[in-house]
Design goal:
Blueprint: H1 4-18, H2 24-34, H3 44-57, H4 62-79, E1 86-87, H5 88-93, H6 95-105, H7 110-128, H8 135-158, H9 163-174, H10 179-210, H11 220-233, E2 239-243, E3 248-250, E4 253-255, E5 260-264, H12 288-305, E6 310-311, E7 316-318, E8 321-324, E9 326-328
Antiparallel strand pairs: 1-9, 2-5, 3-4, 6-9, 7-8
Helix pairs in contact: 2-8, 3-9, 4-6, 4-12, 6-7, 6-10, 7-8, 7-10, 8-10, 9-10, 10-11, 10-12, 11-12
Bound molecules: protoporphyrin IX containing FE (HEM).
Length: 338
């Protein structure tokens, strides 16, 4: 991945050149935040930031995260109205990851949950754009980043930080990272924790609703099978970029320093048994287990607790994301073993 110094060298000119019509203050807000994201750094601080996140969103944090997932899911299911049309995207696929990541950071609020999908969409669209970025795109992205920074900053400075933000702030006190690194990486966590997982949940729930009831997952293993299938065939992130730092040859293909590699993560099949959906190496996704746990719990809860679940209209999609999944169910049954 790009080193921190490379962000100025590689990202900023790309952003500026393609956004000639955008205000420079908008572009500066975007560049200032993303060049502190662990995702774009290979310096010592990369390890410090990753180490800080690990106890909360890595395997060690899974038990605590699982009980939070269960509690949030129970609340969300209890809010659904039986017999009325329900959109499983807004009520579950977006709400669960939004509530989980904002609770872990300590900046959960109805406003934050309502705005996160649109903010995340603006940031993803801006980062993924391979065409001329418009001034409106830059302004929306800057506004989204600014609002997320403010929410996290207020929590860090005068609120009650959740365990994930607390861990980043403790790393500021104990080591070489700066306060702004903690804020910027909390923004990254809001975006990375929401965007990917809500996409995954939307896709697994779409498949679940389309399956005949007798074929829907009824055990944790069956739910895991469905989630793994989607992670292989329709992963939320389909492409990664890496920059070559040393001349090398791989499989007869010469690579030169500074070449950009574009890696496809939806290339897993029976001949590539490893799961590519979470990337790899020092930047591999630290939150993948939590995202997977959210999806497995969600599949089981929807399949086993929403009795007589059936589609109430066709699902809609945009940009590879399920955007609406209308269903009806008769009543909410008891929680099965998730
Ligand atoms: C199932 C859902 C998820 C998928 C498919 C996913 C996928 C990815 C991918 C492909 C990357 C880039 C990896 C690389 O460059 O090699 C990534 C990075 C990252 N993800 Fe996830 N992710 C998911 C859930 C989460 C969650 C729930 C969180 C946090 C709560 C999270 C936090 C991050 C962070 C902080 C990075 C940057 C890591 C770094 O550059 O060191 N992700 N994720």
């Amino acid at each position: 991945m790009l080193r921190r110094d490379d962000v100025t060298a590689a990202w900023q000119p790309a952003i500026w050149a393609k956004s000639a019509a955008a205000k420079s203050s908008d572009l500066q807000t975007i560049a200032d935040c993303i060049d502190r994201w662990v995702a774009y750094r290979d310096d010592d601080a990369q390890g410090v930031i990753r180490d800080a996140m690990r106890p909360i969103i890595g395997p060690q944090g899974l038990d605590a995260a699982q009980s939070l997932i269960d509690t949030l899911l129970d609340e969300l299911l209890a809010d659904l109205i039986p017999s009325a049309p329900v959109d499983l995207v807004t009520t579950i696929a977006q709400s669960l990851p939004a509530k989980l990541v904002t609770t872990l950071l300590g900046c959960s609020s109805p406003d934050m949950e309502a705005n996160l999908p649109a903010w995340s969409d603006h940031i993803r669209g801006f980062l993924a754009s391979d065409q001329e970025r418009t001034a409106a795109q830059a302004a929306n992205t800057a506004q989204a980043i600014h609002a997320m920074q403010e929410a996290v900053r207020t929590t860090a400075e005068s609120g009650v930080p959740g365990p994930l933000l607390r861990a980043l702030l403790d790393a500021v006190d104990a080591s070489t990272i700066e306060h702004e690194d903690a804020i910027a990486n909390a923004v990254l966590l809001l975006f990375a924790g929401f965007e990917t997982t809500s996409r995954l949940l939307g896709r697994v729930l779409q498949i679940l609703v389309a399956l005949p009831p007798a074929h829907r997952p009824a055990t944790p293993d069956q739910a895991q099978y469905l989630v793994d299938f989607v992670l292989r065939k329709r992963p939320p992130v389909t492409q990664l970029a890496r920059r070559v730092h040393l001349d090398t040859d791989r499989c007869g293909c010469p690579m030169r320093t500074n070449d950009m590699l574009h890696l496809r993560l939806d290339a897993s099949d029976s001949t590539t048994p490893e799961l590519l959906a979470f990337g790899g190496g020092r930047h591999a996704c630290p939150g993948g287990r939590i995202g997977t746990a959210e999806a497995v719990s969600c599949v089981l809860a929807v399949a086993t607790q929403l009795e007589d679940l059936h589609a109430a209209g066709p699902p809609t999609e945009s940009g590879g994301r399920v955007t609406a999944l209308p269903v009806r169910f008769r009543r909410l049954g008891p929680r099965s073993a998730r």
